[in-house]
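Q: Structure for this?
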Amino acid sequence: MSITPVDHGFGEQWQKLSPLVVLRAVLKDLWQVLVLIGGAVFFQQSGSFNFGIFALLSGIAVSLAVSIANALSVRFRVHDNVLEKRSGVLSREHEKIRLDLIRTVKVERKLADRVLGLASLTVLTGADDDDFQIEGLKSDTAAYIRSAVDQARAPKEQATAPAAHDVAGDYAAEMPLEGAPGEALPQPVSPPAPVFQPKVLAKFTPSWVFKGAVTGPGILPVFAAIFALATTFNVWEGDFLDTYIDRAVDAASHSDSWMSGINWQFIAIVSVVTFILLLLPVNYLGNAAFYVYKNFGFTLRQVNDSTLETTSGLTTTTSNSINTERLRGVSMKHSIVQRLVKVASLDAILTVGESAESADARLLPAVPRDMAVRVTDHVLPVAGSLDSPLQRHGPKAFRRMFIGGFLIELIFWVAVCVGVNRFFPPAVPYVIAWTVLVLAWHVVGTVKRYQWLGHALIDGALILRSGWLVTTRKVVSTSMSNGVSLSQGPIQRFLGIGNVSMHTAAGPRELVDVTMDRAAVVMSHIDDDLVAPFRYDAPHQDSPPR
Amino acid sequence: MTFPPAAQQHTAPSSGLRLPAHRVHRRAQYKWHASAFIGWSIFLGLLGGGYLASRFHEDFLEDGEPIIPDVVSLSVLGVLALFALFRIVVVPILRYRIHRWEVTDQAIYTRTGWLTIDTLIVPINRVQNVETVQSAIDRMLSLAKVEAKTAANSIFIGLVHVDDARRLTDELTSTMAADESDATG
């Protein structure tokens, strides 16, 4: 593969970081600085010398000095499609990375960075190597390097069109350019007319907060509070009323005071219910605050034909660019509560390195579902895929789920009950009660999971839906399949069903418990040319003996 | 060396797929017997040794009697021994009967497993590298394990004679070299 060198304006000169990185290093290790100051004050006030404390303070001072020296030692340059970084004082490190191989660029600006006008740049190639990171870059330089990466990996017809500063136009407006000694600002070579106008696909609005703050896990604290309250009143022992309310009622009714006329039971119950109801809005407000903290100013933009970019955060702003050539599909998630208010989040299914970069694969936070559908239609070539009607997996799938989930659980818990009866009989009623609870939950779970299991085959994509408490709907492109597989466990063989997986560079996507007839259809849909030679009715092609 | 012809039967009812053409080498079954025997012998030997040692060590005795009753210890050992026997004798036979492979110009087609059976078809142009592995037992039996790797997964093609492994690796490597895509998929 030949790479056309692109001059990004840095030349071959190594660039230093801004002197503000010293301040950044101090702020980053603020606790060390505070300990040092505290130690100095201690020595001055006490007038005595303690060698242990002195040694500790010396260690902290050396650590801080090394941290500052390391920050000052960083040099970087962008030239001939290569991003280079040199760093280190005691041990030197020299890293190079080809711009066109960079898959993800992440620019993070914590609160201190924003105050100082700095940013951290992280680039990932999808390989399992360490992150390539430059901390303390000036914001506009970070934006510039990002645009250089965008330019290098844009399709060839685009490669010459947008000059780096054109693409980063929004950044330039947001982060005014200011020169700093030793960090020369890159100058565009010859800005040609831009071809691709960055397009905003989704932008944070306050209305997102109202629905986005409704989360599934968010109601857990409410249940936890109910549980804690019930435990406090000893509900589990069955003497809730006896212990607390009835005693109060008795005391009140035997006295001649005005209290005898009050219905204490009613007040106690109303108080408990009110407390629980109050928890819901408090929990909701907490979620809303966290949502704003994480997603304030969220923007999803299409920067060029091959780059999507997300920006978000209230105090720490994180912008992350995703190479769409890595995109193999999307995954829409919503919890049982989010389903009620039609809210969903959207993640990109990306090729290799997904596990390492999964946090960077978020396309949309919890937003109105319609928006998730619109964005999916935009980023994937298959329109309407998230709304496609799904096909059920049939009664055999239900039977498999029931056998796999319920019966095995039943056998296990019956064995536990027998064991407990043998060694610790007093606990048997509790174990039986727990077993009934678990099994009832399994029955409900199996029925609900079956109801939410479905798939659809549409032109160029496979759609999978699974999960009950949290439902995931995945749209995976079949055009870049790395193979197909069929897997059958013993119960599945007995029932005549199996799991079909489509392997992609983003990992396998599994369609569980489909009938064999359907499995054949699905495999053909994924890659008919691949599967056809191995069909029973295909003319057998004798391969030479090996 | 001769191989059985492609069997005219399904991998699973109605899946529509025939079986891959080749079985693994006959000696593969002996290798699986041997490696299961070695692994389980060591495991059971350690457990049995531990049991015997506990009979004579005062830390494990209470009034001269073992803390864990003999009936429990021996039952667990017995169940494990039966399971080991199953893994050593029966599972390699099942694996040999089930495991099949086939490599064509377009794809690698394999069938593996004994309890859960996996059938996998991978296009050749997605293969990124081919690996041949020989353990000590493999070397004694002149066998080699051939694996192909894609960006997504590792495909165990088969345990074949070492000469066949070399030929297979050469063929796959030349096919990969002829393909100009980046094979990521």
